[in-house]
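Hi P.,

Sorry for the delay on this. The queue was packed all week, but I finally got your sequence through. Input first:
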Amino acid sequence: MLFVGRLTEKKGLAYLLEAVSMLVGAGRDVRLTVVGEGELGPMMRARCNDLGIADRVVFVGSGTHEEVVSAMHRSHILVAPSVTAAKGDQEGIPNVLKEAMATGMPVVSTYHSGIPELVEHGVTGLLAPERDAAALAALLTELVDHPESWISFGLAARRKVKEEYDAERLNDELVAAYRSILQ
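Then the structure:
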């Protein structure tokens, strides 16, 4: 599994670590790669020790775009467990979700902000409630136990991103809109 993001409260890594602990406790042989740095880095590393999963989680630090893409190609599932931070800080639609979906990688995220506009639960990925590590663990277990589902999620996700988030097509539509206004 792969997590990519700043190590801040709104990214929800703490809940993913709890979910990984649950999967490991249930006998699943899972690994998590964490790409990113942030103020919660030391706390998240300590949490892995507390949960007994330090040998299952690798913190690689910040990565270039190329390194993130490479990590996606080496991973099976991208997890973006976003939450509303205590001070109200929220995500929009995380670009990492779009990028992972464009590769055909299955994604697991949360019912948070604009994410359900991108990830349709059960079609283009799976969504858990915010701050619900048990629900996150259940969805991850579903994917880990049924890798045959990865293809259908990946294909639907790739199609969604291509149809609705293709930058070149969106730029062309924007230019056309401006031209129509100017005329």
